[in-house]
Structure formats: C-alpha cells, structure tokens
Specification:
The protein is an alpha/beta fold and 377 residues long. The chain is built from 12 helices and 11 strands. The chain has a domain at 3-64.
Length: 377
C-alpha cells in the first residue's frame, strides 16, 4: 500500500497506524466473499467516513500538542539584571521543551505587587513568581536564618547557603508551591543621604528603609527602621522620608539608589543577606509531563548559579556607579567592626530561641547556616 497518497508523511505514528487499519479493512472488505456486492456509492460513503475518522484523530493530536502557557510575575524592573535573568529563564524553558511550554513574563510588579507575589502563585494569579521571602515576615521561619547578619561577603556564597539550608531542612513553609530555586544577594550594607555613618553612634536618630532582618539590624545599630518594599526606596530617599537605606552595592545602579545616597558604610562584620524565591503553582507543576518537569529542574539548577554570580557582578558595577556620583565608601577598622558585630549578635541568638519556642530546632538551623557559610568564604 502506498500511504503517501493519503498524506501519510505529514501524520504522526498514531495517525499512520489508524490509516493502516482503515486501508487494511477496506482491502479485506473488497477481497473477501461478498465484498463485491458493495456498490460504488457505498464505497464512496465508507471512504469519506474513514477519511473523517483519520482527520478527527489528526485534529485531536493537534489539540494535545498545543503548548502549555505559563505566566511569570517578578517585582524587579525590566532593566535589572535579576529581571533579565528571569526573562532568560522563560526563554530557556520554551527552547529546551521545544515549545511545549511558553512563559509570558511580567516584570516590575505589573501582574502582582512584590508582597503579593507568593500568595499570587498559590492562588493562581500567576503560575510562576519571583520575590523576597522577608516581604511576608514570619511566614518563612526556617529560611529566615539565612538572612541573619552573619557577615556575608558574596552573593554567590549567600545563594549556595540558602539552597543548602532548603535542601537540608526541607521546610514545610514552602510546601504550598513548587520551588524552582532560591538565591540571595551580596552583603547588605548601610547607605545614607546627607550624613555619613563613620561609627555606630552616628546611626542614632536616623531613619532607614529596611524590612525583615535588615530592619532588626538597623534597630540593633541604633537607627529607626521604616519597613517598605524595595521599589519604594528611591522616592523615600529622594523626598527625605528616610535618611538612608540598607541594601547591597548592586542597588546603587540596579535600582538607581546611588543617585539619591552619598555614603556607604561597609559594615561587613554585620552584613546580612536577603533571600529570594522562584516558585511555581503546585497544580500547574503537577500538570506538566514528567519529561518537561525534568527539563525545567535542570534549568533551575543552572539558573540558581547564574543568579548568585549576577549578584556579585552587579555589586561590582554598583560600586563603580556609586563612586562615579562622587559618593564615599566608608570602611570600619577592626575595633569598630567588632563593635558592630557584637551589636547585631542578639538578633541571631533571639532567632534561635524564638524558633525553639515554636517547635523548631533553632540552634541546629543557625549552626548549620553558620557552618555552611564558613565553609564557603
């Protein structure tokens, strides 16, 4: 039989098998006893029915082959390197799944606001979301250990730490979504507008935009925290609502904060980090075929590394941008640095004690986090 006369070369394997079954049965119908009694009219009708059957199968196959469409919400603005990496993840997923999955990307809080991103994923407002764990204080207690002022020096290291803590403790706090990967920025430092902070006493009376652990750091050092999401920081500084903010070097360029601050106090001994999540709606994840899930998991492993490295690269760029504005980076001598470290130490011990009261092994979580950090820097 010559299947090409039915356009067989354009059909999938299932359609080819159906076509073969039809041809075989038509052939038997006309060669078996009594088959010759079928009239020409009957044959034409029968052939049309068979053709319709084949085309219906092709139609069903085409429906099944339609790509899965996902939405991705991110609070970072489009031009920020972290936003560009998120968008690149979307394109990589589409490329490696051969178009089986297509991701529509919404940066700059255009789909859900920074504080709403996680709940938005849980509720299905977006299928994928990228934001800050600390924007919902108390909701992610185990991973909050990573944000403690442990003296971070690198985003690459902080990213490795947050993923190590997640893998070690598998916290239930993220169980209502499917975690793609986690990452964390480089050292969070004191930045001020108009007044330099050269010693800890200079913090007194100053207001700083801060959230989560960074708010605790500000308070421990003598300042007053004003908890607001990052996208509001520029205007707060520009309008004088706050005297400063705590953030990594990269934000001087990435969020243009170097335009509205004059000084950075490089308090590395008290440096914290901020952990970020990239998660997918649980039901949406479970609806994906296993082979597609495996592809995405491989991409996730690669992208966690890319984000960590990008934090460090953008920190270097942020330093250059900051200094080019005529601003100053202030170092602390060993004695002053030790004073800052001692001032923030109760944040760490209080966290462990509070976690113990909640039924977690706070000491184990903190010890593991500190030891992991020490092994990496």
């Amino acid at each position: 039989m010559d299947g090409s006369r039915f356009g067989e070369s354009e059909l999938g394997e299932r359609e080819k098998r159906a076509l073969y079954w039809i041809e075989l049965n038509v052939f038997e119908l006309f060669t078996t006893k009594g088959g010759s009694k079928m009239t020409r009219k009957s044959f034409i009708i029968f052939s049309l029915i068979c053709a319709g059957f084949v085309f219906s199968i092709v139609g069903i196959s085409n429906v099944e082959a339609a790509p899965v469409k996902l939405t991705y919400s991110n609070f970072f603005p489009p031009g920020h390197i972290q936003s560009k990496l998120a968008e690149a993840w979307c394109k990589e997923v589409e490329a490696r799944t051969n178009g089986q999955v297509v991701v529509d990307y919404f940066p700059g809080q255009t789909l859900t606001k920074a504080r709403q991103v996680y709940d938005g994923v849980v509720e299905g407002l977006s299928d994928v979301g990228f934001s800050v764990l600390a924007y919902t204080r108390g909701r992610f207690p185990v991973l909050a250990a990573v944000d403690l002022p442990l003296g971070y020096t690198s985003g690459t290291v902080a990213t490795k730490v947050v993923n190590a803590v997640y893998e070690k403790f598998q916290p239930k706090e993220l169980s209502d979504t499917q975690v793609m990967y986690l990452h964390a920025h480089g050292p969070g430092l004191i930045h001020t507008k108009g007044k330099a902070v050269r010693k800890m006493e200079d913090m007194n009376g100053l207001k700083f935009r801060a959230h989560g652990t960074s708010a605790l750091v500000v308070k421990a050092l003598g300042g007053t925290p004003v908890p607001k999401p990052m996208p509001e920081t520029y205007q707060m500084l520009q309008k004088g609502v706050v005297d400063g903010a705590v953030y990594p070097f990269e934000a001087n360029k990435g969020w243009k904060l170097g335009e509205v601050t004059n000084y950075c106090t490089a308090d590395f001994t008290a440096a914290y980090t901020t952990s970020f999540f990239v998660v997918m709606n649980k039901d949406k994840w479970n609806s994906l075929p296993p082979d597609v899930q495996k592809i995405i998991e491989q991409i996730n492993q690669e992208w966690a590394v890319k984000h960590g490295e990008a934090w460090d690269t953008s920190d270097a760029q942020g330093i250059v941008f900051f200094l080019n504005q005529g601003s100053e980076i202030i170092g602390l001598d060993a004695k002053e640095g030790e004073k800052w470290k001692k001032a923030v130490a109760p944040i760490i011990t209080d966290y462990a004690a509070d976690m113990d009261k909640k039924g977690f092994n706070g000491t184990e979580i903190v010890d593991f986090t500190i030891e992991t950090l020490k092994s990496l820097q």
